């Protein structure tokens, strides 16, 4: 353990506490691993048990707080996020590497989500409907569920926790929150902000750790619902565990997103979209452009344009001016990307550029990898089918829009897609025919707006959505009430006709 780095704690039962067994893990800057950010609790079952017990007590307080008042707390959290935007962005870049322009956007998404969630405290709508019987009133309303287990990834250290925690809280649930072990400091600061905003202490419980802590949250009998964002393989295990105990579950998992460039596309516009989609966040987004499907008439020209621009991208510490692409998150991610370079060349694809760790003293202590482009990638090859989660773009040549749509759909994932074309008919065909939860026309595959649902189909998720109005249905349940003021027994669903 680095002696100069601080040792942080969990937040359980209204207090900052050390892990029960005293174990910690080290969190280092992926751009320079000599820079140790802190030591964080390596939590286990006992820590999770204490957090869940606290959340159960918090739930009894919070569920009785009027929903508009719950929204007021989130509005204050949004105000604090505004005031601390640059500070948070700097911490996030130090923790996970993406450039400051991106981490500032990460905070802004949290701000947008806070203000949207605050207004939803006045909009947890139910329905009133006519009863089939006389002198009887019928209605539905939303109510909270209980303790929510919130497990979030590293790539959006603030935005994704806000996507989950803010709706869960405004609906009246208490939360046990485990941020990814690669970004624990951001999670720590976020909980501090919620407490400063006035959230009752036992409503939020922070448990740091790795897989053991996450598994304990998922399996805990008093956790009523779980929201997980991460890999499809891990999500499958979470789904199995929740299925056995009938927990409500939201899964947001992998993607193998394609950007389609047709012969009539604005190539300059498509170029900017491909660069941002493929290499933004070093390709570490579930919506990253991992496949580029290009119609044969513009294929060679567009690939040449793309390669020329990609070669100008600057790798480095995301806090340094001029950096375009930061590091991968950890050594495991670096090793995985290298394995796919071997897989791609073994399948006969052409390594057009990149494909290795960069040289140079300024990058030697970080998890950097060159922006990489493969051409001649065949549909159904592993390179074209499997999620890499790194700065690797696979280019597939197609004859026409019909083939492009088929290639897009023929993967096990279905998160995001993109089509660049001037043809309005193809644009509307894409919206209906591309088998994805999100389709962009003349924009890259990445990007989300807080007031719209976010999520995918097939093995990208289990049907629930983050963001927008739909997420509030996940974090609450419908109750129906009947009020009979007739003064006599009236039998519904009996043949009264």
Task: Explain the overall architecture.
Strand 12 (257-261), helix 9 (267-279) and strand 13 (289-295) form a beta-alpha-beta unit. The N and C termini lie far apart (78 Å). The chain has 2 domains: 10-253 and 461-480, Aldehyde Dehydrogenase, Chain A, domain 1 (3-Layer(aba) Sandwich); 257-441, 3-Layer(aba) Sandwich (Aldehyde Dehydrogenase, Chain A, domain 2), CATH 3.40.309. The chain has 15 helices and 21 strands. A 7-stranded mixed sheet has the order 14-15-16-13-12-18-19, with helices on both faces. The chain has a 5-stranded parallel sheet with strand order 9-8-7-10-11, sandwiched between helices. Helix 1 crosses helix 7, helix 3 packs antiparallel against helix 6 (184-196) and helix 9 (267-279) packs across helix 10. The chain is of the alpha/beta class. It has helices spanning 45-62, 67-83, 85-96, 100-120, 159-170, 184-196, 211-219, 232-245, 267-279, 296-310, 331-346, 382-385, 401-409, 424-433, 471-474, and strands at 10-12, 15-17, 24-29, 32-41, 127-130, 136-144, 147-151, 174-178, 204-206, 225-229, 248-252, 257-261, 289-295, 350-353, 372-375, 392-398, 413-414, 416-420, 438-441, 457-458, 476-484.
């Amino acid at each position: 353990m680095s002696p100069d780095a601080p040792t942080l704690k969990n937040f359980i039962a209204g207090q900052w506490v050390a892990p029960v067994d005293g174990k910690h893990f080290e969190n280092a800057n992926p751009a320079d691993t000599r820079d140790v950010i802190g030591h964080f609790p390596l939590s286990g079952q006992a820590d999770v048990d204490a957090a869940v017990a606290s959340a159960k007590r918090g739930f009894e307080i919070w569920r009785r707080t009027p929903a508009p008042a719950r929204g007021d707390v989130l509005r204050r959290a949004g105000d604090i996020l505004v005031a601390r935007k640059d500070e948070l962005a700097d911490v996030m870049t130090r923790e996970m590497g993406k450039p400051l322009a991106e981490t500032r956007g990460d905070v802004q998404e949290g701000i947008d989500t806070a203000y949207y969630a605050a207004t939803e405290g006045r909009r947890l709508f139910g329905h009133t409907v006519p009863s089939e019987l006389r002198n009887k009133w019928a209605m539905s309303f939303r109510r909270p569920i209980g303790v929510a287990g919130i497990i979030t990834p590293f790539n959006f250290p603030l935005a994704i926790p806000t996507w989950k925690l803010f709706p869960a809280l405004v609906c009246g649930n208490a939360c046990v929150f485990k941020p990814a072990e690669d970004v624990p400091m951001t999670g720590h600061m976020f909980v501090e902000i919620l407490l400063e905003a006035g959230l009752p202490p036992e409503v939020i419980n922070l448990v740091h750790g790795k897989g053991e802590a996450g598994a304990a949250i998922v399996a805990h009998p008093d956790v009523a619902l779980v929201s997980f964002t991460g890999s499809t393989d891990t999500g499958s295990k979470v789904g199995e565990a929740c299925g056995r105990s009938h927990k409500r579950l939201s899964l947001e998992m992998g993607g193998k997103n394609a950007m389609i460039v047709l012969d009539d596309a604005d190539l300059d516009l498509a170029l900017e979209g491909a660069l941002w989609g493929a290499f933004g966040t070093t390709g570490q987004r579930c919506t990253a452009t991992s496949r580029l499907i290009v119609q044969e008439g513009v294929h060679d020209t567009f690939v040449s344009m793309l390669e020329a621009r990609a070669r100008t991208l600057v790798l480095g510490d995301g806090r340094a001016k001029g950096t375009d692409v930061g590091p991968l998150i950890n050594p495991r991610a670096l090793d995985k990307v290298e394995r796919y370079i071997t897989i791609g060349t073994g399948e006969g694809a052409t390594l057009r550029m990149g494909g290795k760790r960069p040289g140079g003293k300024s990058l030697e202590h970080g998890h950097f990898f060159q922006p990489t482009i493969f051409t001649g990638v065949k549909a159904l090859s592993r390179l074209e089918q499997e999620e890499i989660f790194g700065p690797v773009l696979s280019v597939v040549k197609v004859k026409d829009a019909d083939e492009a749509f088929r290639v897009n759909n023929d993967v096990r994932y279905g998160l995001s897609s993109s089509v660049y074309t001037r043809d309005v008919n193809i644009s509307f065909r894409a919206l209906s025919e591309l088998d994805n939860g999100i389709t962009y026309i003349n924009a890259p595959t990445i990007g989300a707006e807080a007031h719209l649902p976010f999520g995918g189909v097939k093995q990208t998720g289990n049907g629930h959505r983050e963001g927008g109005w739909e997420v509030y249905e996940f974090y609450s349940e419908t109750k129906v009430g009947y009020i009979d003021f007739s003064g006599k027994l009236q039998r519904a669903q009996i043949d009264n006709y």
